[in-house]
Amino acid sequence: MAEITSLTQSSIDRQNILNNPFAIEKLQETIGLVGFQWKGCPVFLKQQVADFLEVDVRTIERYLSTHGEELEKNGYTLLKGKSLKDFKHLSKLADINVGQSAQSLGIFNFKSVLNLAMLLTESEKAKIIRSRILSIVIDTIAHKSGGRTKYINQRDEDYLPAAFQEENYRKQFTDAVDKYIHAPKWKYGKYTNLVYESIFKENAKEYKKILNLAAKEKVRDTLYAEVLDLIASFEAGLAAELETKAGELGRPLTAQEANTTFIRFAEQPLFKPLIIKARTKMASRDLCFRDALHSKLEAYIQSVPESDFERFLGEKSKDLKERINENIAVFKRLKDK
Questions:
Q1: 319 and 297 assigned to the same domain
Q2: Is residue 225 within 8 Å of 162, Cβ to Cβ?
Q3: Is 291 helix (H, G, I), strand (E, B) or coil?
Q4: Strands (E), the chain
Q5: CA–CA distance, 80 with 104 (Å, rounded to integer)
Q6: Mean pLDDT in the chain?
Q7: C-beta separation of 110 from 77 below 8 A
Q8: 171: domain range?
Q9: Among 64, 54, 77, which residue's Cα sits nearest to residue 116?
Q10: Percent of the chain scoring above 70 in pLDDT
Q11: Which residue, of 39, 161, 200, 303, is most buried by count of CB atoms within 10 Å of its CB?
Q12: Helix (H) or strand (E) holding 14
């Protein structure tokens, strides 16, 4: 999880927190900020936010000038026209002075106030809030995932079908390596690592170190469904490619010939968008949910969308054992086909 200081510097770390609806809900219960109800949600005027964060209004305006796009993305709104007129009418009824002659008025929702608190470097109050935010985010993810963030990928409803499919293609791949490549037994590990390196630039040993996996823990048990799908595509395609090449030669491939075949296969343009997608999801999710940085994929890191928090922590997410028990009849039928 991000350090307190990095929240002021990293838009990705800030957005990962603001996209987490479970943490936001908990923070609303604990921060102690009461606003004016507007369209069913509490909103706050600049002066209220300045008082809360213990800074001058001019400081708030300066951050609106330098980080306006980010704050607007997270709920800061500039009211004009009819919206402003309606807001003025309601605020007058509530005996709140917003300046009836103003031609525009900026209002913050709760998320944009948190956003501002994560940006402010001049406020001691904001620093305290950042510390509280990080504690609640960490606790929320740990609680929602049952304390097993290492295997948070398995809470996704798409994980089991992807894992089952990948296992079938894995068998085709290892059979093809066995039959069509003339090389020592280490060839299975070598060509598996070549698949990993083509997709996420890391071999199994490097990946295990990043996720702090024990020797007996399997890399594939921690991979997201999209990555497993791409690995399955690689394995199925490579198996067919090795078979075709061996048929053309009338014999198994040498290690050098297999390497060349693999490199040509991995460089096919059709894989490029899928590889970029897999790298982005793996690097971004691992940093957010597992606090694991894939340094070779750092350029692919983005903020995790709210839909991913629902996917891995929400109502549809479930522990793997529970998911297996629900679908055991389906998987037995698939296995028998």
A1: yes
A2: yes
A3: coil
A4: 36-38, 41-45, 77-79, 105-109
A5: 5
A6: 90
A7: no
A8: 149-336
A9: 64
A10: 92
A11: 200
A12: helix 11-18
- CA proximity to 14, closest of 110, 115, 111: 115
Nearest to 131 by CA among 52, 17, 293: 17
Lowest mean pLDDT among 212-216, 291-295, 328-332: 328-332
- The DSSP code for 298 is G
pLDDT tens digits, residue range 40-55? Answer: 899 999 999 999 999 9
Q: At 226, which amino acid appears?
A: E
> What is residue 315's predicted lDDT score, i.e. its pLDDT?
85
Co-location of 293 and 195 in the same domain? yes
Residue type, 205: K
CA 163, 316, 301, 31 torsion-angle sign: negative
Q: How far apart are CA 181 and CA 187, in angstroms?
A: 8
176 and 262 inside one domain: yes
Q: The pTM is what?
A: 0.87
244 and 108 inside one domain: no
**Which has the closest alpha carbon to 232: 280, 170, 277?**
170
The count of other CB atoms within 10 Å of the CB of residue 328 is 10
**Paired strand residues for 78:** 106
Q: Express the helix, strand and coil content of the chain in percent, nearest 5 each.
A: 70, 5, 25
Let me know whether 100 and 179 are in one domain. Answer: no
Residues 13/2, Cβ–Cβ less than 8 Å: yes
Mean per-residue pLDDT for 233-261?
Answer: 94
